[in-house]
Every structure is written in C-alpha cells, then in structure tokens.
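Hi Y.,

Following your request, here is the sequence exactly as I used it, all 312 residues.
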Amino acid sequence: MESHPLMWFRNLLVYRLTQNIPFDSEALEAALAAKPARSCASQELSTYGFVAPFGKGGDAPLVHVSGDFLLIAARKEERILPGSVVRDALKDKVDEIEAEQMRKVYKKERDQLKDEIVQTFLPRAFIRKSATFAAIAPKQGLILVDASSPKRAEDLLSTLREAIGSLPVRPLTVKIAPSATLTDWVKAQKAAADFHVLDECELRDTHEDGGVVRCKRQDLTSDEIQLHMTSGKQVTQLSLAWQDKLSFVLDDKLVVKRLRFEDLLQDQAEQDGGDDALGQQDASFTLMMLTLVEFLPALFEALGGEEIPQGI
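Below is the corresponding structure, written out as tokens. Let me know if you'd prefer a different format.
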C-alpha cells in the first residue's frame, strides 16, 4: 500500500494560502484526475502525478475528505541510473575508439556518446517510487505537506497549481528568526507555555564556516551546552514536546521533523476507526488534523507570531 499504514504525518512543511480558495472536493477530484501518476515509459527519466491517498484500485478517490480537511497524495517514479555505471561505460567506449582509431575523443563527441549510453541503459534502470502526502485545511488557510525537503513539497504544490490553475501559497514565516527563539528557550531552560524542551539539539556558530555541535540524549540545561551559547553559538535545531499530544524536532527554517503523535492519540484513532483499514486511516487523519490545527497556531505564537508580508 502506498499510504502510511495509518495517516500520521512524520514531517511538516507549512504553507499559507494568501487568498481564499474554495476547495470544492468534486472539482478538485476532477482536476487531479487530469494529472494521474503513471509508470515511466522506457526512455523517460521520471513521471509525477496524483494517486489515491487511501485504498487502491481505480475507484479510490484522489481527494479524501474528512470534515473540513482534504488529503491528497502525489507519486514520483524515477529511473535510477548510477553515475558510476554511465562513467565506466563511457570510459570503456572512449578507450576503445582511441585505441582502434588512433585519435583523441573530445568533449562534443564524449557528450554524444554519453547520451547514447544513457538511452541504452534507461530501459533497464531501476525504478524508484515515492509518495508525498498533503493536507489542505481551507478554513485555516493552510496546506501541510508531509515532507522535510522544500523541493519535494514544491513538486507537489506546483503540480497541484498546474492541475487547478492557480494556487496562491507561500511558505509560512514568523516575525522573529526561529533560531533566536530556540536559543532563548535553551538558555532560559524553559520554552513557551505548553511546550517542553527535550534532549536533542544542534548548535551552530553564526560565522560562515562556523562549527556545528549536535547533541542527542543530552541534558540541555548542562553547563557544557550553556557554555556553547555563551561563546556565541545559536540553536538551529531543537527537540520539543507540545502538551501531552506530540513531540517533534524544529529547525531554524521552520521545518517540523520526526513528528510523533503520542500513544494516547494513536489509541484514540484506533478506537474511533473501527475494524476496517479505511476507517482506521480516516480516523487517524481526522484526529491528526484536529490536533495540528490547534498545535500550529500555538507554535507560531510561541515563535513570535506569524509574519504577514505587506501588500498581500
């Protein structure tokens, strides 16, 4: 199954819709159906399109609706052709020509030979598939992508934009540099209300090529950590817990990683979901979203408030 066994996001990149868009689920379903995921043809390097977030088969919807929330998923298929394989084959070919024809092979011809080798190897290359999930919360004006890489999130958002014609979104930003707030929390040994500092952080020198210190399972209140900050290092990554509902690692670019929902919530979803897989997935998605739309405003408030650029 392409979807997670249960729908708990593991990472979060948060995007703010800059205009109200009426996300009509039927219209969205039809738009996504025009850009379905498909297999790579023999000479294609990659393909990208939408898949059903839950369930398999042609009748599973591409848009899963749960209360006020929508869940979509996209799949990338790419042919993996290791550079070393191409380089070795090219070297053999060049050596062969130079030996047989007693002449040097120059750049233009090398590039041509390389293209031919790639074309020959492509149909036999491994295919890697990866799915990316995104939740749309129209009432909150947010799109949440389960990815830690902005490139991966942008792939999904730009394909969604092509499918529906327009998608005015931007990465959500806060008024104060997150690293300043995270550094304050570790220095003061106390985070904002409802947030707790856990036992993992990354500290960086503010200079261009400054050093990096990574701490795991460490008492962040220790003198050693405090000393790093006194000497000018900033906290660029920190593990935190929120209420008794979830834990996560936050970095200075506002990426939420290693998101973990506590057992209490997971058990609740299992109870709500009943016996079938789809019910379980729906229940976990609903509970996750209800938790996130409470958690995210609290997080952005704790980080100094959301920044709303002028002129929007």
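DSSP finds eight helices and twelve strands in the chain.

Thanks again,
Q.
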